[in-house]
Amino acid sequence: MRISGFVKLCFSIAVLMISISACAAPMPPRAESPAPTLSPALIAQGRAVYDAECATCHGAQGQGAVNWKIPADDGAFLPPPHDSSGHTWHHPDFLLLDIIANGGQAPNSKMPAFRDKLSMTEMRAALEYIKTFWNDEARQIQWTVTLNFPPPVK
Question: Which superfamily does 38-148 belong to?
Fold first, then answer.
């Protein structure tokens, strides 16, 4: 089926107008509040989970593998740090929990899935412990990202 030049032009103008109006639309206010205090009980549980399941790859103090930014010969990246020098704190909680549960889905990740090995409570505890590796600024930024990027509605 051929589309006439006039229809293509109208479609292009409509797409352009929608794009312009989307750019001109006011942004919703950014939610900000102080990062919540981490739970000592959850941290203790998370440390046990982290030490048993995560430290082997990501390091006992969340330092990650040496040269984690450089892909290995197979194209996969080595385990990144979970401390403030890494990028973990750039992601909202729901995404971090999804990565723990389902593994790294990117083709250049070898992160295994833990959904069949850990309960959601254990995964949340591990994440709570990982947050102890971040400095105050990283914790606040990550909390703001979490507030502003809630889990997608299923």
Answer: Cytochrome c-like domain (1.10.760.10)
- Residues 78 and 71: their CA atoms lie apart, in Å, by 7
**CA distance linking residue 96 with residue 145, whole number of Å:** 12
Rounded mean pLDDT, 18-39 = 64
CA trace torsion 110, 60, 69, 101 (10° rounding) = 30
Contacts of 72 (CB under 8 A, 6+ apart): 78
Task: Give pLDDT tens digits for 79-111.
Answer: 999 999 999 999 999 999 999 999 988 888 999
Average pLDDT, the chain: 85
> What gap in Å lies between CA 107 and CA 63, rounded to an integer?
23
Q: What percent of the chain has pLDDT over 70?
A: 80
Q: What are the residue boundaries of the structural domains of the chain, listed by start?
A: 38-148
